[in-house]
């Protein structure tokens, strides 16, 4: 696997911690993911710091609002030049088209379809009576036709989504665990290598690296696979 295929989720509370990780691992990681936890606490500081380090950023803010609001939010992120930015495909075609219209050329918009935390029962409870697999397919097609650059999905959906998106689409998969590491709250996991073989273009790793005794060794193991 190549360095560029690895995204590290900076799921930590402080800017100092996040930037220490980025400095320490930037030779082994392609992109650093900033999610809501870190963004809401120290977003500007972290994004400034990551920009100074010159590392690509994945801004995982999962936008979902009316088209104009989301378009303005996407425009507001342009100053950070994120390499990836997420939004919920269930916000609809107009919302996604408006977002795509405001994203800068260097930003790839990724759609989130059905959250993998939702059970089949939860999905139907929301009103998606066709169930989760069919809903993922429908939302993914919608995201593609609305001009998004790719999708965040479970590695188990990577194969189907790779066929749908063809060679150009970004298929980004969390829910991966290196062989032998703890699953945590991720239920159906694949190894990084399996996810890439299934069609993922990049994988997202958090705890298996951040909580490892030897984070560099974990990444080297993945890069060597
Ligand atoms: O620590 P871990 O490797 O499980 O971290 C995975 C990262 O990917 C976290 O930032 C988590 O929020 C995110 N994520 C996920 N599952 C999804 C979507 C995002 O684990 N379906």
Quick structural overview:
This protein has 225 residues and is α/β, with parallel strands linked by helices. 44% of the residues lie in helices and 16% in strands. Cytidine-5'-monophosphate binds next to strand 8 and helix 9.
Commentary on this structure:
The chain has 225 residues and is an alpha/beta fold. The protein is 44% helix and 16% strand. The chain has one domain (3-213): Alpha-Beta Barrel (TIM Barrel), CATH 3.20.20.70. It is built from ten helices and eight strands. β3 (57-63), α3 (67-77) and β4 (84-88) form a beta-alpha-beta unit. α1 (15-25) packs across α2 (36-53) and α3 (67-77) runs parallel beside α4. The termini are close together. The structure holds cytidine-5'-monophosphate.
Which labels suit this protein?
TIM Barrel; eight-stranded parallel β-barrel; alpha/beta; binds cytidine-5'-monophosphate; 10 helices
Structurally, how many domains make up the residues? 1
Mean pLDDT: 95
| Topology-level CATH name | TIM Barrel
Relative helix content: 40-55%
Poorly predicted segments: none
Structural category: alpha/beta
Q: Let me know the CATH homologous superfamily.
A: Aldolase class I
Count of DSSP helices? Answer: 10
Task: List the ions, cofactors and other small molecules found in this model.
Answer: cytidine-5'-monophosphate
Give the C-level CATH assignment. Alpha Beta
Question: What is the tally of beta strands?
Answer: 8
Strand order of the largest sheet: 1-2-3-4-5-6-7-8
Which helices and strands occur, and which strands form pairs?
Elements: E1 6-9, H1 15-25, E2 31-35, H2 36-53, E3 57-63, H3 67-77, E4 84-88, H4 93-102, E5 108-112, H5 120-126, H6 132-145, E6 150-152, H7 158-165, E7 170-173, H8 192-198, E8 202-205, H9 207-210, H10 215-224
Helix pairs in contact: 1-2, 3-4
The protein binds cytidine-5'-monophosphate.
